[in-house]
Each structure stands twice: as structure tokens, then as C-alpha cells.
Write a structure and sequence with these properties.
The structure holds 2 protein chains of 2 kinds. Chain A is mainly alpha-helical. Chain A is built from 11 helices and 2 strands. Chain B is mostly helical. In chain B, helix 3 runs antiparallel to helix 4, helix 3 packs across helix 11 and helix 13 packs antiparallel against helix 14. The longest helix of chain B has 27 residues. The mean pLDDT of chain B is 86. The chains are: A mainly alpha, B mainly alpha. At the A-B interface, helix 4, helix 9 and helix 11 of A face helix 5, helix 12 and helix 14 of B.
């Protein structure tokens, strides 16, 4: 039997994987931002993104265009993230790490409950941000939506990188993440830098939520939970310390999950995530701090 | 010398009080509510197990719900497929989950912190899918229904159970069974924590390098803690299966792992008595928040706010508070004059 391998399908599935991975990457970078500054995985990150998406839905519902709502929501999310940090994280700033983790789990329930209270739990849909017309590149039909999603997520992450690399505020917040006490000595307001980190993470999460929702036929208050799982896995794969790693890790994961789901029949849709996690675990056993993470060095 | 005997007297008093509460608690609540108490006992056992691992050995696990699934499904499969009497499957469920706990502890030899959390998290997330996939043994999405598929093996089917000549309702039986095992588990955990193993556990938690340099085998200690913790989770899962008389993949989602972690931190990591409060918190808070208002989403909102508030007020959990309250007493007892 002659085995015909369909390169077109491979290319298309890879791009779909990259688009999924790109969305996860924005949320993964949000996780990394908070992890770098506080050493905590924010379990509420996905729900915060969901909340932002519902705000965007309300704005669109009241007559704004998708992109108008998009940018307005990012601003609102940023403010919301800062406010949340001030309200619930600051009181436990000096508590053990796991205590802060549990607070973010509490926040998960609060945000999810609030969203179901405000917006009743019927399913909704957001208009497509991009044209659904396919585009032809070298004989392969790609969807503009997938390419646009990849572009927007990468642009958001790149903007953030520019901010951290080239602004004084970005430098200060990087310093606060590396060494709190030394930063405080040179006049950085460390506590506010944490709030800034939460604001940026919330804004970035909002981007990922608003990119995820239109791709789904409809969404409800739980639609970001699987995304959070993938983003966490992607961030760990890349190394929790590194935003760059989180982007590459998530995109690799996106492609991996999609190709496994497509080509290995036994895996199907049911076992996609478990298989992907097993692969990550394999990678971690070889590189225990992720692909781009720093090995933890501690003085005894 | 007098102080020492005073200390022993105090411990005996506490033990007697605990036993009295255990024996008489069902008299003060309705038959229906003793089932809720039994459910709290399940959480208690799992949380004590997690505390041994996370609180004393410093290894984070987001996968205890899945270890409970191993225990619960071992019990259900033995009852339904092999026609074992349900209560006799408990030890085997503990052993099975202990072995699985040992296996998921193996990555802990390479990974630490959140990277280890991912390994256990992967296990927890994969569990429901795996249970659905291998439906021959597990009944797939339907799960295994003990009451319908093997009614003769379910204890207390006729409504009453007779133990040592005492006849009691099924709900009371479940309460006494769960909390009886819980108390034994607690005692064992307490002995472990006080003894040699407890010291090596804490040494590993506080500094791996220092522990290794005084000759503690890190690999052995960590995998032992994981296996031990797995036994507790397995027993808890088995009791859950016996109480519910049904297991299915939805019982053992990632949320269950999260709830156990919440219970352990609220109870206070590194404190055993606090675990009772952690278990009661996890069991009763959802009901209480539904009472505030049953409007869509509000119970979750209240539930989350309560978790946050408790953590802000008691950053080291209820156990931290208990320690602080008991300090004037214990220092006076144990301090040399």
C-alpha cells in the first residue's frame, strides 16, 4: 500500500496549533509575570481573563466594534488587576507562598461566581475579529483568523518585552522581581511594582480571553479553564522564569497537542491533554527547570 | 518531674475528650447529618495525608484527588467485579494508592517546587480521561454503581448495621467507620511526625542540602512521604466510594485535588490538629455559602471570599492559631524553671 502523506494537512494543522499555542502563550506570559515577582502561580488568571472577555462582550453588545471593545477592555483589565492585587494579595504579601496560592484559588471562585451572578450563565458569542475567509499561501489554505490570532498574541508579548526592556518603569519592576531588598534600597517601590505586574498580567490575560472567545462557537463562564491548564503546562515547559520560554513552550505545546490529536487515532480528543502533559513531564525529567528556566541555585 | 506528669495528664485528658466527642457526636446531630460528618472524615484523612507530604516534607502535590480516585476505584472494582465485601477492600485501596503515590513521587527526585507540582497536576488532570478511556475496568463515564451492581456486598443495605452487638443506622455506621479510621490515621501520623521519620521529613523540607549532608537519603525520604501520603488518600477515596455507593470520573476531578490542598492550608500546614478544622471547612463551607443566597453564582462568590478572608486573617492556617493559643500553656509545661 502506498502511503500518501498530506503535507497540506500537516501545514494547516501546524498553523492551527500555533494559533492555539499563541493564545495560550499570552496567558502563560501572564502567569510567568506573576510567578517571577511573587513566586506564585495565579490560579485565578484564567477566570480574570474570562471576566475581561465578558466585559468585552458587554461593550460589543452596547454597540462598540470588536477592536474598540478590545482596547477598552485591556485598559479596564489593567485597572482591575492592580485593584485586585491591592485588595487581596497585598495583605498576604509576607505570608507563606502556599497561603498566597490558596488566596488565588479563592479568587478563582470569587471571579467565576461574580461573572455568573452578573451575566447569567447562558452561552454567548463574540464576533470574529478577523475575516473567516481562507488565505492561500504556497498552495495551502490557511484561515486568516488563525494567522491574525498568532500575530496579535505575539504583538502583545512583544510590546510587553519592549516595556520591560526599554522603559525605566520596566527596569524597576524587573529589579523588584530579582531582589526586593536591594531594589527598595535604591528607591524602587517594590509593593507597587507587584501591583503593576498584576495589572499587566490581567491585561495580557484579557487579550488571551478575547482571542479565545471568537474562535469558539459560543462561550460561557468556564471557557478559560482549559486554556489555563494549557497555559500552565506551556509556561512550565518553557521554564517558569522566562517569558520567552513561556511563549515558545506554549506554541510547541499547541503544535504538539494538535498534531497528536490529528495523527494518533488512539489519542483522539479525550487524551490530548494527558499525552501532552506526559511529554512535558518527559522533557522536565531531562531539564528539571524547563527549557529556558534557570536552575535554582541556593546558598546553604 | 511534676511538670512531666502534668504534661502526660494533659495529653490523656485531650485524648479522652477526643474519644468522647467521637463517640457521642452522632447523638447531637440528625441521622442525615452524620452522613455529612462522615464525608468530612474523608476529607480529614486525605488532608492529614497531604499534610505529611506538603506540610512536613515540603513537596507540593496537586494530585491528591487522583490518588483518591485510585483508592475509590480499587474498592469499587473489587466490590463489583470480584464481589468483595466493601469494608474489607479499604486496606487494599490504601496499598494500591500507596504504590501509585510512590510512582508519582519518582519525578520528585528530579523536580522541585512548581515543576513537581506540574507532575502531580498532570496526574490529576489525566485521571478523569484515563478513567473514561479504560472503561472495561472502570465502567467509563458511567462509573461503577456498587448498590446496583453488587448490592449484597454493600454494608448496611437493610438500613441497620450491627457491630460488636451494637445495632446502628447505616449513616451512623459510616460516621463511626470513617472517623474511627481517621483517628487511627491521625495517631499514626502523629507518631510518624514525632519520630525518626518525622525528623528526616522536616530536615528535607527545611534544607535538602543540609539533610543530604547529615546522611539522609533524599530519594528514599521523598518517595516514602509520597507513598505514605498516597495510602491516606487511597483510604479516603475508598471510604468515599463506600459512602456514595458509586464512583465515576466526575467525583475525582482536578477540583477535588484543589479542595484538599485548600483544606490542608486552611487547617495549617505542619500542624495535625488543625486538619480537623481544615476538613470541616472544606465540607461545610459550600453548604453555608448556599445559605447566604442561592442566586446564580453567589454561593461560589461567598465561598471564595471566605477562603480569601481566612487566609488574610490566618496566614498560617488554623494550626498556626492553635499553636499561638496553646503556647502559654505548653511553654509553662515544658520550660525548665
Amino acid at each position: 500500500m502506498l502511503l500518501v502523506f498530506d503535507w497540506t494537512q500537516l501545514a494547516q494543522q501546524t498553523v492551527i496549533g500555533l494559533a492555539n499555542g499563541g493564545v495560550w502563550a499570552t496567558l502563560a506570559v501572564a502567569l510567568v509575570l506573576i510567578y517571577r515577582s511573587t513566586g506564585v502561580v495565579n490560579f485565578a488568571q484564567g477566570e480574570m481573563a474570562m471576566f475581561a472577555t465578558f466585559i468585552a462582550w458587554s461593550l460589543v453588545h452596547h454597540g462598540l466594534s470588536y477592536w474598540g471593545a478590545f482596547f477598552l477592555t485591556i485598559a479596564i483589565s489593567f485597572a482591575g488587576g492592580v485593584a485586585l492585587e491591592r485588595a487581596v494579595i497585598r495583605p498576604v504579601e509576607r505570608a507563606p507562598v502556599l497561603t498566597v496560592v490558596i488566596v488565588t484559588i479563592g479568587l478563582f471562585f470569587v471571579v467565576n461566581g461574580a461573572a455568573r451572578w452578573i451575566w447569567t450563565p447562558e452561552t454567548r458569542s463574540l464576533p470574529n475579529a478577523f475575516s473567516t475567509r481562507p488565505i492561500d499561501i504556497a498552495g495551502v489554505a490557511f484561515s486568516i483568523q488563525d494567522l491574525g490570532t498568532i500575530g496579535v498574541s505575539l504583538a502583545a508579548v512583544a510590546l510587553l518585552w519592549l516595556f520591560f526592556r526599554f522603559t525605566k518603569l520596566g527596569l524597576a519592576s524587573r529589579a523588584a522581581a530579582v531582589n526586593r531588598d536591594a531594589s527598595r534600597l535604591v528607591g524602587v517601590r517594590v509593593s507597587w511594582m507587584l501591583a503593576l505586574g498584576w495589572g499587566l498580567a490581567a491585561a495580557l490575560g484579557g487579550v488571551s480571553g478575547m482571542l479565545t472567545a471568537p474562535a469558539l462557537a459560543s462561550f460561557d463562564q468556564n471557557f478559560m479553564q482549559p486554556v489555563l491548564l494549557y497555559a500552565f503546562a506551556g509556561a512550565v515547559l518553557g521554564g517558569l522564569e522566562s517569558p520567552f520560554g513561556a511563549v515558545v513552550g506554549s506554541m510547541l505545546l499547541g503544535v504538539l497537542v494538535n498534531l497528536i490529536g490529528t495523527y494518533v487515532d488512539w489519542v483522539g480528543t479525550e487524551l490530548r491533554l494527558p499525552v501532552a502533559l506526559a511529554v512535558i513531564l518527559g522533557v522536565l525529567l531531562v531539564k528539571p527547570s524547563g527549557l529556558w528556566g534557570r536552575a535554582a541555585v541556593s546558598r546553604v | 518531674m511534676r511538670r512531666r506528669s502534668l504534661g502526660i495528664a494533659l495529653w490523656l485528658l485531650i485524648a479522652a475528650a477526643v474519644l468522647a466527642v467521637y463517640a457521642f457526636a452522632p447523638r447531637f446531630v440528625s441521622d442525615f447529618h452524620s452522613r455529612d460528618l462522615a464525608r468530612a472524615g474523608v476529607f480529614f484523612i486525605a488532608i492529614v495525608g497531604l499534610n505529611l507530604l506538603t506540610g512536613y516534607t515540603g513537596q507540593i502535590s496537586l494530585g491528591h484527588g487522583a490518588l483518591m480516585a485510585v483508592g475509590g476505584y480499587t474498592t469499587a472494582a473489587l466490590v463489583v467485579h470480584e464481589h468483595w465485601r466493601d469494608v474489607w477492600t479499604i486496606p487494599l485501596a490504601g496499598v494500591a494508592a500507596g504504590i501509585v503515590g510512590f510512582l508519582i513521587g519518582l519525578p520528585a527526585l528530579r523536580l522541585s517546587g512548581l515543576y513537581l507540582a506540574l507532575a502531580t497536576f498532570a496526574f490529576a488532570v489525566a485521571m478523569p480521561s484515563l478513567l473514561r478511556k479504560f472503561s472495561g475496568l472502570t465502567g467509563g463515564g458511567e462509573g461503577l454503581r456498587l448498590l446496583e451492581q453488587a448490592p449484597l456486598q454493600v454494608t448496611g443495605l437493610g438500613g441497620t448495621v450491627t457491630v460488636f452487638g451494637h445495632s446502628m443506622t447505616q449513616n451512623h455506621f459510616l460516621y463511626y467507620l470513617t472517623w474511627g479510621i481517621g483517628l487511627i490515621g491521625f495517631l499514626v501520623a502523629w507518631l510518624i511526625v514525632r519520630g525518626r521519620f518525622g525528623r528526616t521529613f522536616r530536615a528535607v523540607r527545611d534544607s535538602e542540602v543540609a539533610a543530604a549532608s547529615v546522611g539522609i537519603g533524599l530519594a528514599r525520604t521523598k518517595t516514602l512521604a509520597f507513598a505514605l501520603s498516597g495510602v491516606y488518600a487511597g483510604v479516603a477515596g475508598s471510604l468515599l466510594a463506600i459512602q456514595d455507593e458509586i464512583v465515576n470520573p466526575l467525583t475525582f476531578t482536578f477540583l477535588l485535588s484543589i479542595l484538599i490542598l485548600v483544606g490542608a492550608v486552611v487547617g495549617g500546614l505542619g500542624s495535625l490538629p488543625g486538619m480537623v478544622l481544615g476538613a470541616l471547612f472544606v465540607q461545610y463551607l459550600p453548604d453555608l455559602s448556599t445559605r447566604v443566597s442561592s442566586a446564580q453564582g453567589v454561593p461560589d462568590l461567598v465561598y471564595g471570599l471566605a477562603i480569601i478572608l481566612v487566609m488574610i486573617l490566618l496566614p498560617t492556617g488554623a494550626g498556626g492559631l492553635l499553636k499561638r493559643l496553646a503556647r502559654p500553656l505548653t511553654t509553662r509545661l515544658y520550660l525548665r524553671p
